């Protein structure tokens, strides 16, 4: 029996533009990442919003079988079945976290002959969005520590900082850490934590924002902790 990765690698993929054509998308509607991956533009969504709504089937809260058949495999298999009987069906899956890829769970691109490809790309970088979210989150962490180092004008209480760093990897040694060791030039030592990127507030905001301006506004309203008086401190107060 072939493994999931062997099945994925033996598959002959169609060019993403061919897939886009089948979905009614024009070349201007997509931003390609190589031959087999692309993002759909907001302009395409707006152009097609007058079309009749389709039916939404939500697959959730499934306990995987011992063979690993869970939400992703079921969703993809369902779409394959609908396509087989002549329905125009598309699966929408969230991008998997890099965290569990090297553990027992593996990735989240389906399995067997009910999976999305290129499976290795999807699980190990895809279009780079996860890395961008990680960088944005940790840039804010760096700005917080720099603000404290430069005099702490906002009187941020180091004991009540709720903002944490993120990394899209299962590394239990980083769950609870002490940062800024090494003397005066490295800032004020404090406790910090790493959580997985997909659980970050940046990720949640990216999912909820309707456009770039809304994204910026939501970022500005992030609460990073409290000051010495117990009042909330917001990102926009840092001058971000």
Structure commentary:
The protein contains eight helices and eleven strands. With 240 residues, the chain is of the alpha+beta class. Strands 5-10-11 form a three-stranded antiparallel β-sheet, with no helix packed on it. It is globular. It starts with a helix and ends in a 6-residue tail after the last strand. The model has no long low-confidence stretch (mean pLDDT 91).
Please sum up the structure shown.
The protein is α+β, with helices and mostly antiparallel strands and 240 residues long. It is 32% helix and 14% strand.
SSE layout and pairings?
Layout: H1 4-10, H2 16-22, E1 30-32, E2 38-40, H3 42-48, H4 71-84, E3 110-111, E4 114-115, H5 119-123, H6 129-149, E5 156-161, E6 165-166, E7 177-179, E8 190-192, E9 194-195, H7 201-208, H8 212-220, E10 223-227, E11 232-234
- Please estimate the helix content: 25-40%
Our estimate of the beta-strand percent is: 5-15%
Question: What's the total count of β strands?
Answer: 11
Q: Rg, please?
A: 22 Å
Q: What is the spatial order of strands in the main beta sheet?
A: 5-10-11
Mean of pLDDT? 91
- Which segments are poorly predicted (pLDDT under 50) over 5 or more consecutive residues? none
- Element-level helix/strand string: HHEEHHEEHHEEEEEHHEE
SS-derived structural category: alpha+beta
Instruction: Calculate the terminal CA-CA distance, rounded to whole Å.
Output: 54 Å
- Biggest beta sheet summary: 3 strands, antiparallel
